[in-house]
Design a protein that fits this description.
mainly alpha; 5 helices; globular
Length: 129
């Protein structure tokens, strides 16, 4: 029974980490989901639709990273903003939902989560692999 509290806290921490990691990839995930759903709507099998969605997700990240590392500064700013703004939006709503579960005031954690998700998404795209 004593091990239950640490395991619960570790589980909640891992859950929040995975949600935050997903929030920072909001735009590429949306691109992959749209490609997979379009492929499924066109009549492809579920396996093909999933593979095309995953390929579109990886291609979106690769193209954005390539452009962010090689293009001139104004183009870099546009690419980073295109990835950081959706991440901040998802991070805000993630923070809003998690803070709402705690019963505490929700605005400050939501704004903090939005800021962190946007900054992490911008940092991930601009640093070399």
């Amino acid at each position: 029974m004593i091990i239950l509290l640490p395991l619960t806290l570790i589980g909640i921490g891992v859950f929040i980490y995975f949600i935050f990691n997903t929030a920072t990839h909001a735009f590429p995930i949306a691109v992959g989901a749209a490609a997979g759903l379009a492929c499924a709507h066109a009549g492809a099998s579920p396996v093909e639709a999933i593979l095309i969605g995953v390929a579109a997700f990886m291609l979106a990240i690769a193209v954005a990273r390539f452009v962010a590392l090689t293009a001139p500064r104004p183009v870099r700013i546009v690419v980073v903003a295109a990835l950081a703004i959706p991440a901040a939006f998802v991070g805000y709503h993630m923070g809003l939902g998690l803070a709402g579960l705690s019963g505490l005031p929700v605005l400050l954690p939501a704004i903090l989560a939005a800021t962190l998700a946007g900054l992490v998404a911008a940092n991930r795209i601009t640093r070399p692999a």
